Amino acid sequence: MNTAGTAPRRATIRTVAQAAGVSTATVSYVLSGRSGNTESSGVSSETELRVREAALGLGYRPNQAARAIRTGKSNLMMLSLTMLSDPWSLSVSKAVGSAVADAGITPMILADTDWRTAIRRQGADVVFIDAADGEGDAELLAELALSNRLVVFSETLEPNGFDVVRSMAGKSMEQAMDHLTASHSTVGCLTSAPSRKAPRQGRYGAYVRGLERAGLELREDHVATFDGDEFSAYEAAVTLLDQPDPPTAIFATSDFVAIAAIHAAQRLRLDVPGDVAVVGVGNTLQGEAMAPSLTSVGPAGFFDGLARFLVDRAHDPAAAVQVLEFPWQLFVRDSAPAVS
Amino acid sequence: MNTAGTAPRRATIRTVAQAAGVSTATVSYVLSGRSGNTESSGVSSETELRVREAALGLGYRPNQAARAIRTGKSNLMMLSLTMLSDPWSLSVSKAVGSAVADAGITPMILADTDWRTAIRRQGADVVFIDAADGEGDAELLAELALSNRLVVFSETLEPNGFDVVRSMAGKSMEQAMDHLTASHSTVGCLTSAPSRKAPRQGRYGAYVRGLERAGLELREDHVATFDGDEFSAYEAAVTLLDQPDPPTAIFATSDFVAIAAIHAAQRLRLDVPGDVAVVGVGNTLQGEAMAPSLTSVGPAGFFDGLARFLVDRAHDPAAAVQVLEFPWQLFVRDSAPAVS
DNA sequence: ATGAAAGCGCTAACAT
DNA sequence: ATGTTAGCGCTTTCAT
């Protein structure tokens, strides 16, 4: 924990105790708040004052590792966010940042890192995992849940020692597609590469069925796939739009692709929504705040709700496991307005 | 650290020792790698195997808090990043992510959080602070440096118990302005609100002097200010461009405003660089990868260099304090190409 | 109202 | 080659 040259040994609880002429126990009482106004347990306000002054004078800082080993609490919240530049991740981070304000807990982000290994290295009172899909993840999570309070974001996983946060798409994807097909006869899709393999499932499935409902044909040249990062998303959007017969509307399977698509369209001198309408999925803050604001389907109050839940769990890691569901809806904004 | 319902007491080093029929010391030796192939200190490979099997079978995980209290090492790197959505921050995060790959250290991001309070709560082997300007920060940092290895990014601070990372703009800002004034007679500026107060200093100062060198007048309507977030930056760019007599080039004081400016221009159906050229400051990955790629002035190899430095410090927190300087240069790319 | 003392899980001398 | 043991800084009974 220390330092260059001659290390001025950090003050411990014992140093403080000596300086204040009391025992370490008393110092601990005072400094961990067991001496408040309530009559709970008593340290006279004189000694309390002396202790506080000594601590201040010595620049005493409690050693969190030592505290953690005794109490089993780290006051840490860990957020594993897979793609940090995704507005979804940024929205989570921002919401959590506000929620923990005075809760005495510190949120740390594990970015683009493998939570599978990182979690065993560093514990936290609660850890949020934004993506768990892989094969054996269910078992692994169950195992990790033995020693960490886990909150997992997943549409498919069932709670098993860990909480599951789920956003229930329900009928809202259908709504989104119907919203587009109501005024467009060509609707394109931007989706992640793997999703094409399951053409009846998930977000891409919603696209396919939406076309069917509207009696529109599924055109290969109106579907573009990307993998992972935002540049790939941008390129996919260009592929879709910079062709002889581009779609006049785009169903993007996440806000972050949708935002890339809008930028791509504008670069191609296309007006959004005039020349091409865009809807995203996720209802992120960035989508809402951009210009034109992004029409998106997603859960209402999701980020704040999630943040509150995480703070709750951090405070009470022993609470019963539960699944937290956020119903979705369609948020019609400027990038794909309602037809008049 | 644990859990809902009946907590299956987590295995400790002692549990493992019993199961393997050895002492805790032996377990510790094996599990913290003091039994390698070298003849350093010896644990027979049979016992090593037995220990490893026992540990595996019991699902043993070393308690990091306990380890930290003994060794004083947390294997943690803390990155305090003030505006997480800024490509600069994302570039830092990404570079660090690669650098720590097999270094056994976990990078945690403190996002938009006040490092002043957070650091005292949670220690780390090395903590990077991306912005320290405020009044008393110099003293505070010196104090925090007593108990943490600090690496501070600052143009002005002097090392004082903490390392300073500095990117030496040198003549490169002048270059950037000259690059623009060589082919443009109207150059606008996007800068942060407070910078206007010091019209001869910093990045805004470089703009002012650049105009002077070229014999161009400083026009109030060609300077727009923003504060903080990206939406404000976007608005400022629109203000600058959506007027009767907009500039044909923009000097943006950071990549993130520059990127917002390009998006704003494209939305206004302006071609970049045809109708308006843009240069940024920072030379971030996002700027480099976008379309059109962003001409920017900034340090070469900065992010990777910084990441390596941080990993070094994490491994050897007692190394002598130093200042790390990255010379800047102008990276001419598509958003403001060279004149032919 | 305060203090003595027993550990939490782990590592590192120092034995053997 | 392996075991004993003394703590790291802190919290928390249990005495006083």
Automatic annotation (TrEMBL), chains A, B:
Keywords noted in UniProt: DNA-binding, Transcription, Transcription regulation
InterPro entries recorded: HTH_LacI, LacI/GalR-like_sensor, Lambda_DNA-bd_dom_sf, Peripla_BP_I
SMART domains tied to this protein: HTH_LACI
SUPFAM superfamilies cross-referenced by the UniProt entry: lambda repressor-like DNA-binding domains, Periplasmic binding protein-like I
Domain of life: Bacteria
Domain HTH lacI-type: start-end pairs: 11-71
Name of this chain's protein: LacI family transcriptional regulator
Pfam family of the protein (one): Peripla_BP_3
GO MF term set: DNA-binding transcription factor activity; transcription cis-regulatory region binding
Organism, scientific name: Arthrobacter wenxiniae
